[in-house]
Amino acid sequence: MKQTVIRGLFFVLAALGLSTCQRAPQGPVVARVGGSSITLEDLKARLTETPAAYRQYAASPDGRRQFLNLLIREKILLAEAKKLGIPQDPAYQQAVAKFKDEWKRRLQEYQDTLQVESALRRLRTKDLAATDTEVDKYYEGHRADYEQPIEVSASHILLSSEADAQRALDRLQAGEPFERVAKDMSKDPATAVRGGKLAPFRRGTLVPEFEDAAFKLHVGEVSGIVKSQFGFHIIRKLGEKQVPAQAAADVKEEIRAKLERDKFDQWVAAKQALLGVTVDEQAMSNLSLEEPAKP
Predict the structure, then answer these.
(1) Which residue from 2, 12, 95, 207 has the least number of CB within 10 angstroms?
(2) What is d(CA 256, CA 167) in angstroms, rounded to the nearest whole number?
């Protein structure tokens, strides 16, 4: 896997023109096409990029020759492309430029993702780690939630602004079905298609603001606007029931995951305050995935 990633990055760098050295032919030359050559290493490199089933076929004498013939045809066509002046064609140059931009973006994304994953791994082993003592303390402090746990069923409508949430609430108060408003307005795509219905949940599984509001509702009751880190919710309680008790050993890792999520949220909030994070809501409102209309 590591070799595949390194090889993939080499090709990305070469495509971007970041590798300026011209590699001399490596290994025995198996075919020549005019001034170009195809080496044994070329064959091996290209074969590694083909599906596994084809690689098995290419291991046979007939398969190797057929694959070599494909590369020979490619060299012939490349020679013809140069003869026709394709490298100077504006459409070709535009396509290559677009390709380079896309790979630059993908390379940057790869670098960013690798740094984020590495930072999280280090934080989880130190700053964000939840100790056994912390897990046991949480269980003791919430013993009732585990010895007599209640499971709630609910639907919600998630909006990105309080104004939108108020419009959704107005529609509900005017008598529109909750499911219809959720499908029309909710910004949670996973639940909007189900009329806002969530999977059943217990205390300690969702964000506190949402849980507190949901558990306080009577069955069938609709909340007002509830703000959380995800946006603005309107919640309808569908039902609740008591479920079997859970021993500390059974929920130890579940509690650990919750505590580490909480630590991470607190760490992010502290960093946001330190770095001075600001959001331009006006600019955000202009975000659209729709293609602009052609003149």
Answers:
(1) 2
(2) 39
